[in-house]
Structures are given as C-alpha cells and as structure tokens.
Amino acid sequence: MTPTLTVRDIRLAERKVTFRHPFRFGDVTVTAAPQAFVHVEIEVDGERSLGASAELMVPKWFDKNPARSVDDTIEELRRSLTLARQLYLEPRKPLSAFALHALVYPRQLKACAAAGLPQLAALYGPAEIDKAILDALLRLLDLHVFSGLARNVMGLDARLTPDLDAAAVSRFLSGGQRPETIDVRHTVGMMDEPDTLRAVAEADGCRYFKIKLCGDPDRDIVRLGELAAVLDALAIDYRATLDANEQYAEPDKLMTLIDRLDASAALARLRARLLYIEQPLPRELTFTTPLGEAARRFAFIVDEADDGYDAFPRALALGYRGISSKSCKGFYKSLLNGARAARGQGLFVSAEDLTCQAGLAVQQDTALAAFIGCTHIERNGHHYVDGFAQTPPAEAQAFLAAHPDLYRERDGAIRLAIDDGRLSLGSLAVPGFASGVAPEAIASLSTTELRTKEFAT
C-alpha cells in the first residue's frame, strides 16, 4: 500500500558557492552562485521524518531573457521555492508523495506565471521540495532510493502524462537500475583550454566529454578541431556530446555545422564518436521548428526547452530522440521520461548537469540518473568548484565518512573520487535519498534563511 503523508514544515536556506574556474555556457559566464537547501518534515500515520535536498541556483539558465539581470534570475528561483513552499504547506488530507506533487504542480505554474516567472523556473521549487519529501519518506520506511523507487513508494502514476499508462510506469520502475558505477562525462566549457582535456583524461581516466558550442559554425568547427586533435592523440576509446545551449537560432547555421562536421577529415574520428547534440535551438523556437534533415544525420535532445510534462513527446514529433534528466527540473519528470524512452524506437534520456555540488546535490542527481538507466553523467561541480567549496569542514567530513567510495581528500580538499573515469555508487544505497548524512547535519552552519524580494515583472 502506498503511504500517504502530510507536510508539516519546510525550511529554506542558502549558501554562496564560489567557482575556481569561470563556467561559460551560451553567452553567460558564471563565477559564483548561491546553493539552496530545503529541509522538509513529513508525517505518516502519526510518525514524523525529516528529509533534505540541495541545488545550485544557477543564474541566466532557467531564464535567459536579456532584460533580466543575473540577480533577477537568481531571485526568480528563490521566488519559485517560496511559492512552492506555501502550496505544499496548505492544509489538506494526507496524500501520496506524487499525488501531492500532481496537486501542487498546476497551482505552482499559475502562481509563478502571475509573478512573472518563466515556466522552467517555476519547476525549480517543486523539484527541490519533492526531493526532500522523498528523502524523508525513504528514511521513515528505512529504504534506500533504488529500492524505494522500484517499489514506487511515492505512488507515481500517469495522471500528468496521458501518452503513458499505469502498466508502462510500473514496468519501468520495477526494472529500475542499481549499477555499482557510472561514467563521468567531463564538460569542456568555452573558456576551457584544449589541454585541460589531456590533464583530465590522464588524472581521472575520463572517456566521456561534453563540448560547449558558441553558435557560430566557423568558430565551433575550429574549436572542435583543436579539441579533436587532443582527444585523438590520447589514443583512448572516447565518446563526446555537443551542447549548443540554445545558441543556433538560425537552423541554416546548424545545418552548416553538420555539413562541415561530416565533410572534415580532421574531425572524422570525433564525428564517429559523437553521441548527440543538445538543445541547438532557442527554447522559444524548439517546438515550432522541425529538425528535418538534421535529425536524419544526428541524434538531438532537448534541455532548456524541457519546461513541462509534455515536452518530450512534443520534441519527438519534431525529430528529437532524447531529453535531459536534471533533478532541478523535477525528478518525477525524469522518471516518467525514462518510462517513455523505455518503449524503444531509439529514444533515450541523457544525464546532464547545472553544476551539482559535492554532497547532497550531486548524490541525489547521480542516483536518479543511475536508476533510470543512464550509463554516463555530466558532472560539473568536480571541475568548476574546489571540492566542497564553502561547505563547513565538519559537514564535508561527514559526507566523506558516510561515502568513502564517492569522495577522497586530496590537496587539502575533499573532492569526488573519479577512478578510471567512473564514480562508485555503492554507498548511495543507504536509507533515504542517496545520503548517509543526517538531514539535520546538512546546512546547519554557514547558511542564511532564503528570502525573496520584489523584482520587476
């Protein structure tokens, strides 16, 4: 029987994270961002349990409106969290975790639209609260995330995805994966030097790489040539993906890029190892622009355009073959998209990242991706942030002690332990949502209460 719960309390906090390397995607360069922390207390049959989640509030990704400042777009995510908090705390009869999400979801979209937030930003608040609820529920049931998802303790169903049925959802969850390791896909930002590839491959053994594009075919082909020369010289069996971050606003330029990729002898080895191209078109053009010939020559996925439960089937009708999983966009959506992809026809879900930070964020997102069958995952936090960054030493040491296979202490900092290009996932199978550290020990220091302020709509 699926447990029903009541949310008794939600606490929001944040902590600044400073990057050690500038991270450039699209036309944005990020050097710091606040990380949000959510603590949720639930009650099930008179018994209470605490759960937590964490996620960076990345500026200018959820909303790329040039009229919005960096601070405005961070504020939108704070507003998304506080609006969702109000909705989850409204008095109501006990519901399953997913039934509660399905009830709040349309109300959150309406409230955020009235506040001037784009729909992608509206998803952020429920995504973080839902993760903390699941953490609390799994702790109460003494289940780890892989077992809990497979048993569907959250009551996931197809009410938000009419193209699926109950059998498809149940079949997918019961067949969920619990791998021992997952490959790391190292991101090459537009400000990263080509030689960093060699250093990463030699130091961590990475064989998967994600390369950012700028939207100019001439510049992108030159840069791809520089990167291909480094990768080819390593003599490893690598794989790569390309991420345009909405920069190819003109489909003709996208076709120029593809033509030149196919025609270049210098890029032949890279071309043979390219898995897919991510979000080539601006989100506002994605669902009005069929990919046409491009889709017959490359696999494409949507990411920034994924702002609702209908995004994947709409994209498939236009030639896309995949969609990204990011827990900041909603882990229920990732699970349901996994059920869609499991129907076959060459469909897939990829594991992407917005710089999940070491600790709770990276662990929950990685566990989700592993469960839905992703075999490699983009992990930016290990590269652009110095380990646990501004996390208090006691908190970082708690994660190291609870997850000694996932972290190691090196050069005075606790960092992800990437061995032979892989992360070990064994220690994530502990009661709760992929964390052996008690929720009350997370973000108890060096955080401030998350507060919102008015901004222009």
Number of strands: 15
Percent in helix: 25-40%
In the CATH hierarchy, what is the architecture of the largest domain at level 2? Alpha-Beta Barrel
CATH topology of the largest domain: TIM Barrel
Q: How would you characterize the largest beta sheet?
A: 9 strands, mixed
Helix-strand category:
alpha/beta
Integer average pLDDT: 95
Tell me the radius of gyration.
21 Å
Task: Sum up the overall morphology in one term.
Answer: globular
Strand content: 15-25%
Total individual domains: 2
Q: Can you count the helices?
A: 17
Distance between the termini: 45 Å
CATH superfamily of the largest domain: Enolase-like C-terminal domain
The stretches of 5 or more residues where confidence is low (pLDDT under 50) are none
Q: In the CATH hierarchy, what is the class of the largest domain?
A: Alpha Beta
Name a few traits of the molecule.
457 residues, alpha/beta, Enolase-like, domain 1, TIM Barrel, 2 domains, 4-stranded antiparallel sheet, 17 helices, 15 strands, 38% helix, globular
Detailed description of the structure:
- The protein is an alpha/beta fold and 457 residues long.
- It has two domains: 6-172, 2-Layer Sandwich (Enolase-like, domain 1), CATH 3.30.390.10; 176-433, Enolase-like C-terminal domain (TIM Barrel, Alpha-Beta Barrel).
- It has 17 helices and 15 strands.
- Strands 4, 5, 6, 7, 8, 9, 10, 11 and 14 form a nine-stranded mixed sheet that branches. A four-stranded antiparallel sheet has the order 3-2-1-15.
- The longest helix has 19 residues, at 70-88.
- It is globular, with a radius of gyration of 21 Å.
